[in-house]
C-alpha cells in the first residue's frame, strides 16, 4: 500500500517537473539554467520511479 502511494507521488512529481520545464522553456531567455535543473530533477525522479517499480515486483508487493 505504501509503496503504491510512493510510486504515485513520484510520478506526480515527474509530471509537475515536466510542466515546470515547459514553462521555463517558454518564458526564460537563453542564459537561464532553470530548464536544465528541471531536466535533472526529472531524470532523477525517473530513476527513482524505475527503482521503486523494480523493487515492488522483486518483493512481491506489486503484481
From TrEMBL:
Stored InterPro entries: DUF2909
Keywords per UniProt: Membrane, Transmembrane, Transmembrane helix
Transmembrane segments: 6-27, 39-58
Protein name from the UniProt record: DUF2909 domain-containing protein
Source species of the chain: Vreelandella sulfidaeris
